[in-house]
């Protein structure tokens, strides 16, 4: 069968175009992912080293060319060791594209959004600090394990009670997974970004740090100002009001329709490609 496909499509000009489009799409997605993480600086450094390698080779700087060759040869191993977390995330995202995780793509109910809104607005009015992370596609199991496991249903009363000052669970983050409170008083990774304004505290840095590593949605209530903020994919929405809070929760939590639309669009593209192949095949037969 592979030999038949090779004979049928091997010399077809459309296959070459499809090959270029696939490579372009992969590079495009990698650059898009790199812009949302520290990998962008890494790609720029790699590009500079490769450029210097070709330049030194062309000019005839043999010593520099040999050194850069060694750096590139051993750099692959070093990158795998240093960026194993980022590589794991890339592979996980690739698996999500090929095999959709239907268990985690369920839509939350209106009650969940109402409970989140009610608790956030209550704590905001009274300047009760809060940090709530909602698991999406990326697993938060390693962070759930750092806190006190609850595995309880979500309610505004419970969320408010957890963050009341001087209670055992108020310090840290609440993590919600599968529309249940999985754990409280959890430790989240702090962002080391220098772009974060200095007036933002540890809660905001933890929320942005989690957004840099996962696709979780994190809700923050400032203990100093009572302002509500939302972090998604290291993007920070600061000082959101009641209406904006409702809009953002709907936008980030109700994702099933958007995923279905994207799948339909991908299916439409594949059908068009197959149609072009069949049409081209029919044209050859007519000739």
From TrEMBL:
The answer to whether UniProt assigns keyword Lipid metabolism to this entry is no
Q: Which residues cross the membrane?
A: 12-30, 42-60, 66-83
UniProt keyword annotations, A-Z: ATP-binding, Cell membrane, Membrane, Nucleotide-binding, Nucleotidyltransferase, Transferase, Transmembrane, Transmembrane helix
Q: Where is the DAC domain?
A: 84-242
What's the top EC group for this one? transferase
Q: Name one GO biological process term.
A: cAMP biosynthetic process
According to its UniProt record, the EC number is 2.7.7.85
Q: Which reaction does it catalyse?
A: 2 ATP = 3',3'-c-di-AMP + 2 diphosphate
Q: Which domain of life is it from?
A: Bacteria
Would the keyword Cell membrane turn up in this protein's UniProt record?
yes
Molecular-function GO term, any one: diadenylate cyclase activity
Q: Which InterPro entries match?
A: C-di-AMP_synthase, CdaA, CdaA_N, DisA, DNA_integrity_DisA_N_sf, DNA_integrity_scan_DisA_N
Listed Pfam families: CdaA_N, DAC
Name the NCBIfam families for this protein. diadenylate cyclase CdaA
**Task performed by this protein:** Catalyzes the condensation of 2 ATP molecules into cyclic di-AMP (c-di-AMP), a second messenger used to regulate differing processes in different bacteria.
Q: Quaternary arrangement and interactors, per the entry?
A: Probably a homodimer.
PANTHER family the UniProt entry points to: DIADENYLATE CYCLASE
**Which family is annotated?**
Belongs to the adenylate cyclase family. DacA/CdaA subfamily.
User: Which protein are we looking at?
Assistant: Diadenylate cyclase
The organism named in the record is: Facklamia miroungae
Q: Per UniProt, what is the name of the gene that codes for the protein in this document?
A: dacA
């Amino acid at each position: 069968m592979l030999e038949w496909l090779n004979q049928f499509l091997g010399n077809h000009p459309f296959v070459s175009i499809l090959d270029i489009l696939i490579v372009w799409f992969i590079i495009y997605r990698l650059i898009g992912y790199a812009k949302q993480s520290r990998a962008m600086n890494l790609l720029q450094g790699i590009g500079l080293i490769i450029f210097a390698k070709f330049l030194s080779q062309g000019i005839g700087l043999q010593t520099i060319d040999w050194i850069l060759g060694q750096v590139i040869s051993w750099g692959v191993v070093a990158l795998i060791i240093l960026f194993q977390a980022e590589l794991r995330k890339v592979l996980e995202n690739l698996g999500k594209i090929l095999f959709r995780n239907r268990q985690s793509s369920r839509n939350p109910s209106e009650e969940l959004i109402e409970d989140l809104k009610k608790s956030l607005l209550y704590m905001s009015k009274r300047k009760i600090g809060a940090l709530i992370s909602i698991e999406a596609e990326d697993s938060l199991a390693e962070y759930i394990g750092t806190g006190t496991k609850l595995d309880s249903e979500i309610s505004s009363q419970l969320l408010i009670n957890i963050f009341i000052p001087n209670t055992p669970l108020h310090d840290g983050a609440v993590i919600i997974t599968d529309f249940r409170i999985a754990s409280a008083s959890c430790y989240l990774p702090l962002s080391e970004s220098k772009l974060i304004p200095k007036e933002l505290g540890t809660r905001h840095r933890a929320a942005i740090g989690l957004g840099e590593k996962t696709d979780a949605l994190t809700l923050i209530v400032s203990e100093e100002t009572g302002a509500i903020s939302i972090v998604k994919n290291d993007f920070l929405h600061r000082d959101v009001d009641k209406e904006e809070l409702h809009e953002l929760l709907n936008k980030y939590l109700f994702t099933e329709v958007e995923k279905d639309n994207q799948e339909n669009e991908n299916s439409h593209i594949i059908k068009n490609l197959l149609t072009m192949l069949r049409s081209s095949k029919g044209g050859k037969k007519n000739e």
